[in-house]
Amino acid sequence: MIVKRIIPCLDVKEGKVVKGTNFVSLREMGDPVEMASAYSQAGADEIIFLDISATNEGRQTMLNIVKKTAETVFVPFTVGGGVKSIEDVTRLLQAGADKVAINSAAVANPALIREAASRFGSQCVVVAVDAKYMENSWHVMTHGGSKDSGIDALDWVREAELQGAGEILLTSVDTDGVKDGFDLELTRIVVESVRIPVIASGGCGKPEHFSEVFRETDVSAALAASIFHEGTFSIEQVKQSCAAQGVDIREAGLF
């Protein structure tokens, strides 16, 4: 059995970690370098850094912050936001990222996934999918969840896998920041649609939500922001809760 991963996510805007609800009403949470370092030491299995305003602002990911963050963490480090070209992927990997997440640009140009996978290996390529329920299906949202692509999310994750993606980062726009639990239905059908690992994101409000998504779906990892950033629960508490529910989890501090 594959050990499940617990991942804190740093949504970064203007150099600060922020968090909102349904991708809006953002509030400042802290310094990304300091927070990433603390999570790495606290037992995170991976850290994801998303420059959430880069695409809308038409700029590249903040490489200086990525470099500083990469120097402080000792777990796999995924970076996304504003990735538009193979050159952007190259820069982020050279800055210290282990994996690069591509979202809006991949929807506009799926060949970017194949080019990145061919050059760096599928294990480096994460396709981030922001999905929102609309008219009896989930649509892929781009540009920080603000634009409806009109593309069915299930069709898109299958295409992303076909193009060479090594992993899917699935975020439910509907449950993001709501803290009532992950979108189990969306997560389940996406996991069942692909053979590559899927990270569940959006809606976690307590440790039990992690064990729930692990028990109810075959997701490989689950991600949270609010409960960790606000200090509501620690990574260790989440892992202890999961273990108590029979989830195969790596103990905090063991790598």
UniProtKB/TrEMBL annotation:
The keyword Cytoplasm applies. Its main location: cytoplasm. Gene3D superfamilies: Aldolase class I. GO terms for biological process: L-histidine biosynthetic process. The keyword Cytoplasm applies. One of its GO terms (cellular component) is cytoplasm. GO terms for molecular function: imidazoleglycerol-phosphate synthase activity; lyase activity. Coiled coil: none annotated. NCBIfam families: hisF. This is Imidazole glycerol phosphate synthase subunit HisF. It comes from Sediminibacillus halophilus. The gene is hisF.
